[in-house]
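sorry for the late reply, my laptop died twice this morning and i had to redo everyting from scratch. anyway the thing you sent over, i finally got around to it. pasting the sequence first so we're on the same page, its 111 residues, then the predicted structure underneath. double check i copied it right bc i was rushing
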Amino acid sequence: MTKQLEQGCNDLAVNMDDSLAQRLMLFSEQLQMPLWLIIQNLLLADWARRCASFEVEGFSPPRIIPEFAREQLEDGTEQVITGESLWNSLVEVYKKELIAQKNNIATLEAA
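ok and here's the structure:
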């Protein structure tokens, strides 16, 4: 493992959002799999979906990468949205996408 990857893993462990850590640990317990495997396979699944999307639809940053959106703070600086705020935002975005897909399928089936 490279020094950069090792440092990144250490930073992840130290700086991980508490709510995400709790979700990951619960998932790990429920599946009876080690935490590193849960994180690794979730990343692989997500990146594989992105790769397939890029290959089929082309690269579209605003739609493809909402988890790196920034918000402006009161002091004028920007920060990447994360933690529970990002979780709630992404759940809503993905629900809307799934509803739209479901409606499109229903429309096609009715035609």
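Residues 44 and 59 are 18 Å apart (CA to CA).
thats about all i looked at so far, will dig more tmrw
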